[in-house]
Amino acid sequence: METVTIIELTRDCEVVQIPHGNKVTLPRGTAVDITQSLGGSYTLRTSAGLFRVASQDTDAIGLTPNAPPVGALSPAASAEISEQQIWDTLKTCFDPEIPVNIVDLGLVYEMQLTKLPAGNSRVDVRMTLTAPGCGMGPSIAGDAQQKLLMLDGMEEATVEIVWDPPWHQSMISPEGRRALGLE
């Protein structure tokens, strides 16, 4: 039997409704339980449904906001960004309903890192979603963009949602398949 720990929000908190993607505010005192905590964001269950709370708002559920994502550089480090840092950062982004990162789900179709004339970098990411009707697309893409912009030396980051080719389960990496129990 699964134990559910109910907590109350300590303040009003802006969240994203799953799967519709609508931004709403849950009032202070709302009873929630955490159903998923991956990549610095949390999926909350309330009597009204599922909601995603971003890492900067985790204080509302009694947690300390997370540190910068894996791959972020310290201010003293070089501003040279590698493709590996980009991939590592994208692996900290999750669909709030699926416990596998967007890279291992096969949602990231293309990543292009460009050095800008001033010395900083720009990254362009093309990704898809598991279903065209998923309202969480802007939230997932926004999370990826925000984390990429946190990398020292990253000046610009765009994350575009595309639908061609259509996503299917064969795009899931072996690590993702294991995490989902598909192997």
Write up what this structure looks like.
With 183 residues, the protein is α+β, with helices and mostly antiparallel strands. It has two domains: 7-61, SH3 Domains (SH3 type barrels); 83-179, Fe-S cluster assembly (FSCA) (GMP Synthetase, Chain A, domain 3, 2-Layer Sandwich), CATH 3.30.300.130. The protein has three helices and nine strands; from the N terminus they run ββββββαββαβα. The chain has helices at residues 83-90, 137-149, 174-179, and strands spanning 7-8, 13-18, 23-26, 31-38, 41-46, 49-53, 108-115, 121-127, 154-161. The strands form two sheets. A six-stranded antiparallel beta sheet has the order 1-4-5-6-2-3, with no helix packed on it. It has a three-stranded mixed beta sheet with strand order 7-8-9. The longest helix has 13 residues, at 137-149. Residues 67-78 have low confidence and may be disordered.
Q: What is the gist of this entry?
A:
The protein contains three helices and nine strands, in the order ββββββαββαβα.
- Beta-strand residue percentage: 25-35%
Indicate the multimeric state.
single chain
**Number of DSSP helical runs:** 3
The major pleated sheet works out as: 6 strands, antiparallel
- The residue-averaged pLDDT reads 88
The N- and C-terminal alpha carbons lie at a distance of 25 Å
How helical, in percent, are the residues? 10-25%
Domain count = 2
Content-based structural category: alpha+beta
